[in-house]
Amino acid sequence: MKSEKENKQFDVPQGYFESFDERLMIELKFQQLFPKKSDGFTVPENYFDQVEKTIIQLNKPQGKLVNYNFKTVIGSIAAIAAVLLVLFYVVNPIDKEMEFDSLSITSLENFFEDEERLQDYFSAEELSTIENNTSIFDDQVVTDEIIYEYVDQDIIQSSLADQ
Amino acid sequence: MNSIEDHSVSLKFEDLVSEYKERLYWHIRRMVISHEDTDDVLQNTFIKVFKNLNNFQGDSQVYTWLYRIATNETLTFINKRNRTTHLSNEDLHESLVTNLVSDPYFNGDEAQLKLQQAIDTLPTKQKQVFVMKYFDELQYNEISEILGTSEGALKANYHYAVKKITEYVTDN
């Protein structure tokens, strides 16, 4: 048997021996109450075979889906509209004094694609009107052709008509 | 199909599902009680596993990583369910345990029903630790890695859980 002096090199958590009896009694009582470790839950017949098939099926690679949300589409439309308007003014000699030449197209695109800035150029009512008067946002996939067609019909033409 | 390059072993998603579906199912079931809810959470867990297979760093064991995802999915589900039913976690769990009597996928005896009722009285953290230690038979260092809690705190949680369950069953 080791002397008390030898045991001094080891340490135990504070209060360990004081609480040991209580912890042991609780554990013994628990084991008496629940001698077998079972929770009583069951599953439907063949469940695990079925769920494995379902999970594998759910995670099979599928065709790539491209999702466009409303703000993304509006951002794209605004960017395209901005580029077209810049081109219109650049080739129009009357507006030369506006000095659009000093702006890069990329900067303008970034400017209009920023969702917060978009709110500066379209009021909530206008955004709502655009959303409610077109069906293109109902489509999961919006092609470039659809965007160009929309911009051409609803924005550019009205802009030109206002000139 | 995604796979984990774990040193010399290449684990395919199908192998993970096959290997761990039952362990994860029981882990989830003991927290959410209902088989149908467990089925949903189990599928969500593996969908998340599939999406993150390439991000698995290999710095923890695969099953620890899977348990962590399953645990998080379970807690997310429980919180969402509580919001939907406008019941507290304790009230909802009590209702689920009460319904166990008529549950076709519960065939426990009186002692097991009493055990579920007692577990139902525990706070979420103690419940998690008790289930993982007692039923899932995980080591404290494994539970610590899954829950991000120190082993000392886990031992205290487990001890208090056992004490409360024992007292509940004795008093009732």
Automatic annotation (TrEMBL), chain A:
Transmembrane segments: 68-91
Keywords (A to Z) from UniProt: Membrane, Transmembrane, Transmembrane helix
Domain of life (superkingdom): Bacteria
Name of the protein in question: Uncharacterized protein
Organism: Leeuwenhoekiella polynyae
From TrEMBL, chain B:
Entry keyword annotation includes DNA-binding: yes
Pfam family, one: Sigma70_r2
Top-rank taxon, per record: Bacteria
RNA polymerase sigma factor 70 region 4 type domain: residues covered: 113-165
UniProt xrefs under NCBIfam families: sigma70-ECF
Organism: Leeuwenhoekiella polynyae
Family of the protein in this entry: Belongs to the sigma-70 factor family. ECF subfamily.
GO molecular function term, any single one: DNA binding
InterPro entries referenced in this protein's UniProt entry, alphabetically: RNA_pol_sigma-70-like (IPR039425), RNA_pol_sigma-70_dom (IPR014284), RNA_pol_sigma70_ECF_CS (IPR000838), RNA_pol_sigma70_r2 (IPR007627), RNA_pol_sigma70_r4_t2 (IPR013249), RNA_pol_sigma_r2 (IPR013325), RNA_pol_sigma_r3/r4-like (IPR013324), WH-like_DNA-bd_sf (IPR036388)
CDD domains membership: Sigma70_r4
Name of this protein: RNA polymerase sigma factor
Every RNA polymerase sigma-70 region domain range: 16-84
GO biological process terms held by the UniProt record: DNA-templated transcription initiation
Alphabetical keyword list: DNA-binding, Sigma factor, Transcription, Transcription regulation
Taxonomy of the source species: Bacteria, Pseudomonadati, Bacteroidota, Flavobacteriia, Flavobacteriales
